[in-house]
Amino acid sequence: MKLYLAGFNLDINTIEELKDFSKQVAENLDPANFSKMDFQSQKYIVAKLYLHATSIMERDNFTPETLSAAYARISRNSKPVNELREIARKEVDRARKSNQNIIFGLGHNSVAEHATFNFDILEVSRYAIEIIEHFRLASYTEKSQRYILFQDDFVVPREIKGTSLEKEFRYIINQQNSTYQKLYKILLPYVFEKFHTEAKDPKIHKTLEGLAKEDARYIISLATQSQMGMTVNARTLENIIAKCNSHPLSEIREYGKKLYDCTKNYTPSIVKYVNPTSYLMNKSNDLYYFINNNISKPKKINTKDDIDVKLVNYHPKDADNWLLATILFRFGNMNHKRALSNIKKLSSKEKLSFYKEIFKDIKSWDSVLREFEFIYFTFQLVVSASNYGQLKRHRMTNIISQKYDIDLGITIPESIIQTNKERNFNEIIEKTNDLYYKINQINPIVAPYILTNAHKRRVLFKINLRELYHFSRLREDKHAQWDIRNTAVKISAEVKKIMPLAGVLLSGKDQFDNTYRKYLQK
Questions:
Q1: H-helix segments, 295-335
Q2: Which residues contact 108 (CB under 8 A, 6 or more apart)?
Q3: What is the C-alpha separation between 498 and 483, in angstroms, rounded?
Q4: pLDDT of residue 94
Q5: Is 138 helix (H, G, I), strand (E, B) or coil?
Q6: What is the predicted pLDDT for the residue at 299?
Q7: Distance in angstroms (rounded) separating the CA atoms of residues 361 and 272
Q8: What is the tally of structural domains in the chain?
Q9: In sequence order, what are the residues at sequence separation of 6 or more whose Cβ sits closer than 8 angstroms to the Cβ of residue 180?
Q10: CA nearest 187: which of 165, 166, 161, 217?
Q11: What are phi and psi of 405, to 5 degrees?
Q12: Could you please report the per-residue DSSP string of 112-126?
């Protein structure tokens, strides 16, 4: 794994000071003029610039901590905030002491959120990325297996290196990757033939190539190397480092160490509690042990009972009425109980009229009202690793997942079936499963590395209605990847059964205008 600190936020006055100094250097050392000066004049200018540079460096304010310190003082200092920034910028040591006192002494941790960092993360496994992107209060952009043709780069976990399983691990992954390349070459002409009308336009060729790549990738492993960019504030960064340092997987511990090493000199006053803790290190094992010894489980779990989308809970139960009452609460100057009572007295026609007013003039890019957040749904999903890789990007949802379970089977793209490559696909899956069993018996934590994008896991997915509108528009759209689109369509269908009024416009962006017109005609 490689990790680089790509940048962080600086006070604008520090940036302007550096720009001004650069301008002075360019003007004073312009070869056309500098070469014509006598030696003493040249020496004077160089000395002057050197002293200026030294004074800038001595302030040591190339850190986002000064912004955190300045904003931390707003609540207790009457000076204008721009003056507080200037004070912090000129007195970095005092700024750091202020941060220490306010963040860790008084417990105002949100002050650290004013400092942000950017990271380049390279040569990291797809499996590790699932864990890295577990942290919701950060922004990620990941190398896409839909648009980029992957090569043979993969991560061999430290736990497997040097063991009797390493040779077989490399062999199976090489077979997976070889099959991936062969599938891509077969699927490419299939896709062009399937969309032969669209293929007449050269501008669409990249999109069609992407369709072949996204289906071929179902056979490559979670050990496949990828790369990503991450932006995160210092408060979340501290939490990430602490949890990663306590993680049982060596690749994640390495990630936590590299994050800290990259930033520790810039954040001594706002990133502090990063050491492993017994709570973080032992909690998962403690719970597994407790459950196995105290809660009876069936000897054989029937995975046939698992459907890919199942609504397991929602709140409140009278959702259409409850949402109208919540909107009436805001605009009607009454308590919520009275608002709900008033809504229940409305006829079906009156409620429909109310909802039409709520949705009036809405466009596919508009967010629905914040009151929609008070309605939430919890689904149990059974999804492929490929599907999960997209699902986890919806960070305003609540997602918890079980480990991958080979008894749940696999997801095979329809294109692979249509090109008669299902048998070849399954042969590789069988070999993969055999090795998974071997690794799982020795070290379960690293066993998922060998699994493919086709393998499945159970996920508990909680989403509020406002976020569901965003999710639906993005994931039900015709441009969305088919696997997660299937999931999104089924989720929306379940919600529409419960909320036929508030859920009526759930659809992909490409369908939104037609759905809206039909709705208005009711």
A1: 319-332
A2: 72, 102
A3: 24
A4: 80
A5: strand
A6: 65
A7: 49
A8: 2
A9: 150, 216, 217, 219, 220
A10: 217
A11: -130, 110
A12: GGG-EEEEEEEEEEH
Q: Which residues pair with 400 in a beta bridge?
A: 460
Do residues 183 and 145 make contact, with C-beta atoms less than 8 angstroms apart?
no
Given CA atoms 23, 28, 31, 33 in this order, what sign does their dihedral have? positive
* Order of all β-strands in the sheet with 398-401: 309-315, 376-384, 456-464, 398-401
Exposed, middle or buried, 8 (CB in 10 Å: 0-12/13-18/19+)? buried
What's the CA gap between 282 and 376, in Å, rounded? 32
Average pLDDT of the residues in 488-509? 96
H helices present in 295-421, as ranges: 319-332, 336-344, 348-359, 385-391, 414-418
Local structure of 63: helix, strand or coil: coil
pLDDT over threshold 90, residue 454: yes
Give how far Cα 175 sits from Cα of 74, 428, 429, Å. Answer: 60, 7, 10
Please give the residue range of the domain that contains residue 354: 317-371
pLDDT of 22 strictly over 90: yes
How far is the C-alpha of 145 from the C-alpha of 236, rounded, in Å? Answer: 27
End residue of a domain, out of 371, 389, 410: 371
Laid out side by side, the sheet with 225-233 consists of 2-8, 116-125, 225-233, 138-142
Tell me, yes or no, whether 290 lies in a domain.
no
Q: Is the pTM of this model over 0.85?
A: yes
Last residue of a domain, one of 344, 371, 398: 371
Place of tokens 């094992």: 285
Residue 416 lies in a domain: no
Q: Which two tokens stand for residue 275?
A: 């050491």
Residue 144 lies in a domain: no
- The pLDDT-based confidence of 382 (bands split at 50, 70, 90) is very high
The string of pLDDT tens digits covering residues 283-320 is 888 888 888 888 877 766 666 678 999 999 999 999 99
- 125 near 133, Cβ under 8 Å? no
> Domain for residue 69, yes or no?
yes
In this predicted structure, the answer to whether residue 59 has a pLDDT above a threshold of 90 is: no
Beta-bridged to residue 275, according to DSSP, are none
Which has the closest alpha carbon to 463: 506, 404, 407, 519? Answer: 506
C-alpha span between 255 and 262 (Å, rounded): 11
Q: Which residue has the tokens 């609504």?
A: 311
Q: Are 92 and 62 in contact (CB under 8 A)?
A: no
- The Cα–Cα gap between 253 and 246 comes to 7
